[in-house]
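FAQ: What does a multi-protein file look like?

Like this. Sequence, then tokens, then the next protein.
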Amino acid sequence: MPGAAIGGVRLLLRLEGVAMGTVALVAYAQHGLGWSAFAWLFLLPDAAFLGYLAGARIGATAYDATHSTLGPLALLMAGMLGGLPTATALALVWFAHVGFDRALGYGLKYASGFTATHLGRIGRRDPW
């Protein structure tokens, strides 16, 4: 797929996802709100899938807004600088989610369709 990472670059990006998710989990264990809160909040970024009901372009924009590292970085900064432990914990859950998705190969979406990502095409591969 044009525009997608391949080979060693793709592997490196997925390993970054593993590292991001692992660091977020370890940090959450130290600064978190408990594991039941983690479990409930972990899938929250996936609510952006609802954007696909309005079409691929809006869906991709909504998905990318909740699966980029910019949001959790801003929330983490606000939590740390503002002395807001709940914001810090939420940012760590968000980072864990993004890292887990990237490790599995779910990258940022292109407007051409849900399966087109910066880490390559996802989903069932047509054998033909």
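And here is the next protein:
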Amino acid sequence: MRVILDECLPRVFADDLPGYEVQTVQQAGFGGKKNGELLKLIGAANFGAFITIDKNMPTEQRIAGLSFGLVVLRAKSNGLQHLRPLARKVLKALKDLKPGRVIVVAKGRP
């Protein structure tokens, strides 16, 4: 599965997601795009998952009907020290993710 990381996430977090083809928004050439346009570009580029820390995205954007799924990280910050502990849960979420769906990954969640 092709996975894209939002531009607010550290590029090196991709190293914590073995088995997936991971790009950042910047690497895909989508840097600086607003959320609505970004979601269209991600779909057109055939990514299977978009990982973000933007907790408001599921309520501000229409996710149902997208050709990819959304993983929303809930962490103290977007620092690698706060994201790395979530990596195992992100890998599980990616296996379970369906197009047009949102999975929230947080420290205290199963």
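Q: Is there any per-entry metadata?
A: Some entries carry free-text notes. For the entry above: DSSP finds four helices and five strands in the chain.
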